[in-house]
Amino acid sequence: MPERLTNWAGNIGFEARRLVRPRSLDELREVVTGAGRARVLGSGHSFNRLADTDGDLISLAELPRTVEIAADRATVRVDGGIRYGELATRLAAEGLALHNMASLPHISVAGAVATGTHGSGVRNGNLATAVAGLEILRADGSVTTLDRSDADLAGAVVGLGALGVVTALTLDVVPAFELRQYVYEDLPEASLHEHLDEILSAGYSVSLFTRWSSAGIDQVWLKRAEPVSGDFFSARPADGPRHPVPGMPAVNCTEQGGTPGPWHARLPHFRMEFTPSSGEELQSEWHLPRSAALSAITAVSGLRERVAAVLQVCEVRTIAADDLWLSPHHERDSLALHFTWIADTEAVLPVVADLEKALAPLGARPHWGKVFTTSPADLRAAYPRFDDFAALVARFDPQGTFRNPWLDALLG
Predict the structure, then answer these.
(1) Residue 233: pLDDT above 90?
(2) Measuring CA to CA, how many Å separate 242 from each of 55, 176, 342?
(3) Which residues have a Cβ under 8 Å from the Cβ of 381 and sit 6 or more positions away?
(4) Where is the FAD-binding PCMH-type domain (predicted)?
(5) Percentages (nearest 5) of helix, strand, coil residues in the chain
């Protein structure tokens, strides 16, 4: 490669021999069948070596955009390179919507699905739960199509890029809807402990932001259809637009203040037309049973000073249970603790290890694409269907074309 290629945050320098951008399925097939080893790079919004390879790194960004709405308007078929912001705009123009979106609309659909990325809401599954079908280009150049009638689909959706190249996805869609977004400040610790379930269930999507510099919550972001007024469990309404990270400009955040707007302009925290930050950060996230939410918050509070010293902001969200084999929310309603760290790996990693130790007894599962130090053995033990997933990988990619050292360690 003519220059060093890194992930979005710059903490990972990819070791690929080249980056290729095929413009058609035939070009992609030619790359894959001649690669030896290959991995697909989505939007690069990962913070570990999950996407790395010593072979060919493949970007699907140049593939022709595909947005094909089914005749019954219940699903949409999209290409493997499309990003959520672009898809959302196309769906909204047709009066349709996705059930949820992540904080960033800039990320690729295929990459987000493959790692179990999510939005928020006690009744909302992660983004992968919308997948009704996959088309996977395998190492021999053949394409395998899976839908919900195939038992393999539940194993392939959160597939970590290990089965092949996802060239197309079929997603569930729903009629378009409107939401309002409210931001509140200074939720007291007493409210958090006495009313946590009510707080997290108060809207279609709810996010709590804290810097762990105090026992309370700095900001509550409430997204719901119905208007509200006054305080929120003793938190006061913000007197203007806010960014989750104090001191950052709110202009790149989605509209607040309770003004109704389309789903795709309220569910993400950030606008598609703005870059949310410079990438000067690291991220970690752990998913725990929602029944252990207060215990998890208490565990992190015990490390407050160490966490706050290297933290930009922490977001607390909920995700509904699903049946996807490698989903962090497999078979349990979940609480997610997302940490946006300063861009200092040496300072952050010891704190990450301390958090993992504190959260492990509660059944924490790390986000596949973030910074963590959990051992491969402990990761395998955290997923009841992991052995089935390993067998699926062996069946789809027996020569290991789409594996890398990160996956080799995980799969054994």
Answers:
(1) yes
(2) 43, 26, 20
(3) none
(4) 12-176
(5) 30, 25, 45
Distance CA 397, CA 412 (A): 14
pLDDT at 193 over 80: yes
SS3 249: coil
For residue 8, what pLDDT is reported? 87
Task: Give the integer Cα–Cα distance in Å for 319 and 121.
Answer: 6
What torsion do the CA atoms of 112, 115, 120, 126 make, to the nearest 10 degrees? Answer: 90
CA angle, residues 70, 174, 385, in degrees to nearest 5: 90
**CB neighbour list of residue 267: distance below 8 Å, 6 or more residues apart:** 100, 101, 119, 179, 205, 223, 254
Q: Closest Cα partner for 58 from 154, 137, 145?
A: 137
Length reported for the chain:
412
Q: What's the CA dihedral at 225, 230, 232, 236 to 10 degrees?
A: 120
Q: Distance of CA 10 to CAs 2, 4, 52, 280, 282, Å?
A: 17, 10, 13, 8, 9
Q: How far is CA 31 from CA 24, 167, 329, 400, in A?
A: 11, 13, 34, 15
Tokens of 57: 């790194």
Q: Which residues contact 286 (CB under 8 A, 6 or more apart)?
A: 296, 336, 337, 355, 356, 359, 364, 365, 366, 367, 372
Rounded CA-CA distance 154/125 in Å is: 14
Cβ-based neighbour number of residue 302 at 10 Å: 11
The pLDDT mean for the chain works out to: 96
Q: How many other CB atoms sit within 10 Å of the CB of residue 56?
A: 20
Residue-range domains of the chain with CATH: 18-59 (3.30.43.10), 67-176 (3.30.465.10), 178-376 (3.30.70.2520)
Which 8-state DSSP code applies to residue 50? Answer: G
pLDDT above 80 for 333:
yes
Mean pLDDT throughout 280-301? 97
